[in-house]
Hints:
Layout: E1 2-3, H1 9-26, H2 30-39, H3 48-59, H4 61-66, E2 68-69, H5 73-92, H6 95-114, H7 116-128, H8 137-161, E3 167-169, E4 172-174, E5 179-181, H9 189-203, H10 210-242, H11 249-282
Antiparallel strand pairs: 1-2, 3-4, 4-5
Helix pairs in contact: 1-6, 3-7, 5-6, 6-7, 8-10, 9-10, 9-11, 10-11
Amino acid sequence: MKTCTELSGKDKLKILSLLLVWAALFAPICPEMVREWLGHSDNSHGFLVPVMAGYFAWNRKSQLNSATISSSWNGCVVLFLSLVVYVLSFAGGLAFTARVALVLSLFGLLWCLLGNQIIRILAFPILFLLFMIPVPYSLLSLVSAPLQLIATKISAHLIGACSIPVYREGNMLYFVVTQLEVAEACSGIRSIMSLSMLAFAFGSFLRDGWKNRIVLVLLAIPIAMAANIIRIAGTGVLAHFYGDKVARGFLHEFSGIVVFAFGLVVMVGIFSLMNRKRGANVK
């Protein structure tokens, strides 16, 4: 068995050729996915995912150089099943499953060509590509509706705790001089998706095992929800004094950036504490 550094030029050409065939096969579904990244802010993080995945793979370069290469029939099975799903999805116009098949087929192809040791090292960078796939709008709607209601209820309580009279009906907040609607875009689903992706990224750098990584990813959900509720409640307080103009235009977009930055800082803090705790235990 060879290591990556011992591959001959012929072996490298074979692997490159198969990757080019794979890329050509899945090329038809990529332009529409890029248009969805461009057309909807909830999916704009898709541009970053391949770059981040490439960095994670490059960061494992030393491990890859020393790993042995051997073909795997398990990988061939994964590749075959992924291609079947892709063909059926493409023929049936099912974009989401076709895109999932894109990532899983890459996983299967590399597993088939390079073997178990290599795929263990590359598993995280490859599967991280799943974050670039836009979630179907129908599924987002199912999740965002209850998130809207929860965020509106808690925000109303927080605003009331500031001695500001507010009446809630559904996802509407009524004040003495104005009213605010907690729209679907303010449900927090965007922050949950983005912070979950970043939590996965941070988790790859944790020195501990999978337990802390899972905890970090799960914490991304309440952190994103809390940050969004703070944004809604803060907007409600400002609207009471300055009118509903604070919920439109630049101020609305800027508050979203600030609140996301707040959630990111909290996530980085938790990540640092987990790593520091692990370092102290090792000592």
